[in-house]
Every structure is written in structure tokens, then in C-alpha cells.
Amino acid sequence: MPEIERKYVTPGELIAEGSYKPISNVIRIKDKFYATKVGLAEISHEGIRVIPLSGPYIPRVDDLVIGKIVDYSAFSWEVDINSCFFAYLSAQNVFGKDFSPDRESLLKKFAIGDLIYAKVSAYDRTRNPILSVSGPGLGRIPKGEVVKISPAKVPRLIGKKGSMIKTIESATNCKLIIGQNGVILIMGPPDGVLLATQAIRMVESEAHTAGLTKNIQNFLSKYKVIES
Amino acid sequence: MKELINEKGLRIDGRKVDELRPLRIEVGVLKNADGSSYIEMGKNKIVVAVYGPKEVHPKHQALPDRSILRCRYHMAPFSVDVRKPPQPSRREIEISKVIREALEPALILEEYPRTAIDVYLEVLQADGGSRCAGITASAVALADAGISMRDMVAACAAGKVSGQVVLDLNDVEDKEGEADMPLAIMPNLNQVTLLQLDGKLTSEEFERAFEMAVKACRVIYEAQRKALIDKYFGKAEVGEE
């Protein structure tokens, strides 16, 4: 492992001086690097980045998100993806290229209030994000419990190579679907859902601490989920 | 006229000329806001809420390349001795604008195109220097909301009372004194974002007041930083990835 130096930073704080590459949430003024968000600064040979601990969800292409249908027109649905922008899901993506609004009604597929698991297929700063539901596992979410966390803490909930999510899933007998936008869907027995929710809340409040996966394991081992 | 500084060199509230009022900042006091803070600076008590970035309504206000910052400074009717009518007064509208302009240089608004960031400042109790306390608290609330910032903004006033240059004027000193000069700076970038002056100062007095206020802003910045660190990291050690 290459050496990585870490420290807690607040906006405007000097992280380092010298020739580094700014990766994310860092501004460079001459050869000084300042943090732009509250978070954990990491200085490595690759460059400097700040892992933020709060902030809005900014969509990125290929992100998997959980969204809620809030409106529809003749050709598309409008989806709330917990971001500063509404996302659009085009009817062509769902019904196929030869979609015609005379033949098919959009409401047959997704109604207002439905939750969907979708992929961001296009987004840049000039336009609102476009979603796609073509892919395995994507589409309408039929059941489950929804928990929202801060989008900045999603990477922590997934853990290194998915370690955290695997820990929670196996201990609670639940299946977790995580949207990059901070919306999490839990499916499983009622006890498990409750326990998983607690574990997720714990991850959210202790996202900055070391050895979090261990703590969660200890916490979860105190309970046993009965299969229903 | 009242005696504002006694023969011992102490002011009406017992402070020395270059002494700040007791300062307390809390982060994340409002559950439903994206970012929030509460500040007590002497008898000033202000709650700040930040919402956004979010979609702009009315839509024609949106800018294609950056976010718009909207501030509302409002004094509660019970915040002063004589009831203040709740509708925004001329003074409040002006202070809202001044606060917006003091915060704007610190924010990287280009990161959130076509959106709006709303900052609501509610003064629960006012005792002079509430715009400075408001700016200080707003910067903390914006950082809490996770909005990209070039730097924090810390603000403090200096002025002239009974012929002496003093720091952080309270309500009586502001009204009876000879000059009041609110100042906001970005402490790491060493830039001034707000400088107003009500009254008259000689150039020497100005230099001295400016220096005093900048020094105080740095103290206030440390308090802002501490408030954020306490909220986000508590007493925990440095984490893994």
C-alpha cells in the first residue's frame, strides 16, 4: 500500500503545499492546496482529494439511483432522484424505439409515486440527467423499505469492495439495493429490515471513524434475525 | 451622553477595548434544512438555515453556468426592545443584499449550474453587530450543507466609541458611538468580502480598527472551524478509507 496521509479538514483549510494533483474537492492557488468541503483529506502520490462528509447528490453517468416518479408527459417521465435536478426517463427507453403515444399509455408501466431503480445514462451540467431502465435488475421496485442517507456517505455504506454491505446483508437476512443518490432499499424479514435500518443509521453517524466495518459487525452480532 | 468607556478603560458591558463578546457556534441545529447553524455572539442570537442547491423558482432567474445565491436576513418581532413589524424593512432588505455579497466570493457557485442556494437568517435576539454574526453563522451553515467553498467567511465589527477605537460594538455603542465598521474576511485567502463604515474615522483610526477587526475575524474563524470539527468528527480518531 502506498503511503496515504489523512487529516480532517474544513473549507478553506490548507491541506498541503508542493506539486500534487488535485483530484476532488480541492482548489489550488499557486502551489497551495485548500479543501472546499468538510471532510477527510487524503494526500497520496496520486494527488490530493477530500472525501466530503456532507453535500448534495450530483449525478454522474452510469450511477445507479433509486428515484420516484413525480410526473409524466406524452413522451417521458419526470423522476425525483434526490438531487438538485429532476431526471427524465424517456418512454422510448421503456417501450422501445417504435413507441407512439397513441398506442401506449405511460401510466401502464410506471405511475406517479412508483419507485424505480435506474441508471443515469446521460448527464452534463447544461442538461438535466437522463435515466435508463434497460439492464438487469433495473425497473420498477415492487416492495421493500426505503431509507435515505446523505449521498456523501454512500461509499462508506458500500465499504471496501462491498464489505460493509455484505456484512449487513448476511447478518440481517436482507437484500440491500443502494442508490448512489443516498436512497437505500431494504428487502427481507421485518426484524431484519429494522436491524439493517439501525446499522445504516450507525454507518451514517460514524462515517468518519476508523474500523467501522468491525463496529458494525459487533453491533449486528448482538442480534439474531428470525426467518419469517 | 452616556459614559461609554470608564476611567479604567472598560466599556459598559465590562469589556476591554479590544475584547470580543462571548461567542458560541453550533452546527446542524435544524433537521429539515440541508445545512444549519446557530450563533450566540454576546446577546445576539441567530439561527441560519441553508437549503439547496435546488431547482430555481421562478425559472427565469436561473443562470446557465452557475448557481444563484439568495439570502434573507430577518429579525423576529421580539428580537428588539420595541416590537419590530414582521415584514421585511428597508434595513433588512439591504442587509440581506450585503450578506449575499459577502458570502458569494467564498462559494464555488459554478459547480451547481441552473440551481439556487437559499440562506435564511432569523435573528431571534439582536444586540448590535447582527450582520457580522449572521455572516459568520451563514458560512458555517453553508459548509454544513456541503456546498463547495473557496474559504470560510468570518465577520466582526470595529468602531469608535468615546474617541477610542474599539472592537465588536454592541447595540448601545453602535447607537451612541462615533463610528461602526463591519468587516468580513476570507481568513485563508486573506481577502475582504465586506467593508462598511458608518461614521467618521481618521485614516490612522481606520488602520487601527481594520487591524483589530481582522485579528478578531481570525479568532472567530477558529471558533467556526472548531464548531464544524466537533459536529463532524467529535472526538474520533482519523478514519480509514
List the helices and strands and how they pair.
The complex is a heterodimer of chains A (228) and B (241).
Chain A: E1 5-9, E2 14-17, E3 22-24, E4 26-29, E5 32-35, E6 39-43, E7 48-52, E8 64-72, E9 76-80, E10 86-90, H1 91-95, E11 115-124, E12 127-132, E13 139-140, E14 145-148, H2 154-158, H3 163-172, E15 175-178, E16 183-187, H4 190-205, H5 212-221
Parallel strand pairs in A: 3-7, 10-12
Antiparallel strand pairs in A: 1-6, 2-5, 4-5, 6-7, 8-9, 8-11, 9-10, 11-12, 11-13, 14-16, 15-16
Chain B: E1 23-27, E2 35-41, E3 44-55, E4 68-75, H1 90-103, E5 115-125, H2 130-144, E6 154-161, E7 164-167, H3 171-176, E8 179-186, E9 191-195, E10 198-199, H4 203-233
Parallel strand pairs in B: 4-5
Antiparallel strand pairs in B: 1-2, 2-3, 3-5, 6-7, 6-8, 8-9, 8-10
Helix pairs in contact in B: 1-2, 2-4
